[in-house]
Amino acid sequence: MTEDQHEIVIEKDSAARGFYISLRHGVGACWPRLVVADKGHSPVFCEDEQKSLCLICVGHLYASRAKSFVVKESLALLAEAYGRTGLDGVRLEIDGGMFALFIIDKANNKLLAIADFLSCMPLYCKSGEKETLIGINQFDLADGESPTDLACAEYLTYGYLPFHQSLFAEVKRIGPGQSITLPLNKPGRLEISQENYPTYPDPEQRLTDESQAIDYLDALFTDYFARLGDESIAAGLSGGYDSRLIAAYCREKSLRLCTYDSPDTQEAMVARRVAVTLGLQTEVFQVAANSPCRFAEDFLYGTGTGDSLESSHMYAILETLTRNNPAYIIDGHIGDVVLGGGFYYKLKRRNEPLYKIILGLDRYQTPRLPGSTYLERLATGYGRKISALPTHWVEAIEVREKQHLTDLVKRLQKHCPTDADMIEMLLHRFRGALLTSGGPVSFMRRADTLCPFYDRKIFTACMGVAKMLRAGDRLYNAFYRRRFPELARIPKENTGGFAAQNLVAYRLTHLKNAVYRKLVNRMPEWLRKDGKAGGDIDSFIGQYVDNAENQAFFQEVFSQTKEQFARCGFQTIASFPPDNEQKILLLRMASLAFLLSGPIVQK
């Protein structure tokens, strides 16, 4: 394959962590070199008959006219759409998925790249003096560049990067609605469009009729799951509403369920009850204490944004889900925000009196607030923040987060008419889009992963439902009472309430359990048994840090990055600490060290 033949070079690289495209700068046409990691995400290719157009998908997508979830079918339809109306036609044709899509247009001598509408699948670019790189893993594009000190501090503070685009100053991440355009004959002239977020309709135009909302959403969910045939599928089943919705719609299909047993919650008990009620079974398994070192390869190659090993239970779930090689994994990620009205937990008692919330009189129509006010209210909305770093780093991170969040709120103003809209979109941006890498996106390295709540039609429909209907599971409960009444008396694990309760009873139950958890958290640790809820992972963190195999693994990666940490002013933790925040910091330092050092020999 040569440049004169105008052919695309595809090669495998054992040192790569993901898929990336390289274009060397020079005179005349520069045909891209496509690099596929041996152990990373597997791209899907589609080329037209004239070999003038090539589409490459990393992750999973599906077109609106596609009859199935098979990526190749959708890519062929997207190629047709591109031929008719260009990139705008491609965007309109895509119905959903978490993906990075690359379009090599030989006829017009250009390369285009986009990500899904919330930018869940990481997409990075870097343009240097001699080469332009575009790919899904920031470490492939760094090319010897050292991470910035402040980005490392932010990672250790949150367990991922909510504000920095990457760990590296020259590696940029593509945001929601953005696209990359690169002329193949001038590969140094990379253009990136402006961010473009989904827009909420005006409050007075939103759906307020509960029955109409249920009928509309039920039709959309039915159409979504109808794309599945008789292929094998797998899904995790927790104690929450999102996963049981998936199980209910797929009970007649070839579905396999699994549940991890969190010792401090009732997740497994609730999940078993859901499964039995639906005529199914769920495999309950224990998360191994050595999960961080055991699943280090999944973490290294599956996580493009750099999430932390503190979430290693996700890879234990992945191992169980893929045991029988399913065609698809289905995940309910961020359904609690998209349909369940998770914004409510960031707003309660802020602009609605408690009695109105309990009685269901909350309306959530307060206008947007100044950007700085969202800092405090989202303190837990973009990851678990710890303050165990030296004071000067804590202060630097606070300055960075204030600047970034204020700028983001300004960009979102035209999309979010109300305060509740703004909170919800910020949750999508941080909790949804950025933290997805540790869940569904990393799952795609092993199997195509679907998420109904990232379906464009379902997502848009939920945005068009009045906040008063969605707040605090109000619509979700009504949906279960009407569509799946057999599940309506099974409690939601983290609230303790169940759909068959009336609104006041459900919210009083939630309030009682929330107060109870706060009281329990103030008790000595030895008195906290069964006091946590909602998939709390603190018990896993203690097991991870105390495990001898993990400790040896951590020491090995620390030994390879000791000088680099010292240059950044960070001291690696010599002993294994008893304090929970210090344990989290240790896991994040080990995660960062491993990401920076790359593959090491596992004992």
Structure commentary:
It comes from Desulfurivibrio alkaliphilus (strain DSM 19089 / UNIQEM U267 / AHT2). It holds the Pfam family Asn_synthase. It catalyses: L-aspartate + L-glutamine + ATP + H2O = L-asparagine + L-glutamate + AMP + diphosphate + H(+). Its EC number is 6.3.5.4. Pathway: Amino-acid biosynthesis; L-asparagine biosynthesis; L-asparagine from L-aspartate (L-Gln route): step 1/1. The chain is α/β, with parallel strands linked by helices and 603 residues long. The protein has a domain at 9-192: Glutamine Phosphoribosylpyrophosphate, subunit 1, domain 1 (4-Layer Sandwich). It contains 23 helices and 17 strands. A 6-stranded mixed beta sheet has the order 1-3-2-9-8-10. The protein has a 6-stranded antiparallel beta sheet with strand order 4-5-6-7-11-12. Strand 8 and strand 9 form a beta hairpin. Helix 4 packs across helix 19. The longest helix is centred in the N-terminal third of the chain and has 23 residues, at 71-93. It starts with 8 loop residues before the first strand and ends in a 6-residue tail after the last helix.
Helix and strand composition category: alpha/beta
What would CATH call the architecture of the domain at 9-192? Answer: 4-Layer Sandwich
Q: What average pLDDT do the residues reach?
A: 87
Number of helices: 23
End-to-end separation in angstroms reads 40 Å
CATH homology group of the domain at 9-192: Aminohydrolase, N-terminal nucleophile (Ntn) domain
Main CATH class of the domain at 9-192: Alpha Beta
* CATH topology (level 3) name of the domain at 9-192: Glutamine Phosphoribosylpyrophosphate, subunit 1, domain 1
Strand content: 5-15%
| Overall 3D form | globular
Helix share bin: 40-55%
C-alpha Rg (nearest Å)? 24 Å
What summary fits the major beta sheet? Answer: 6 strands, mixed
Uncertain residue ranges: 1-6, 529-535
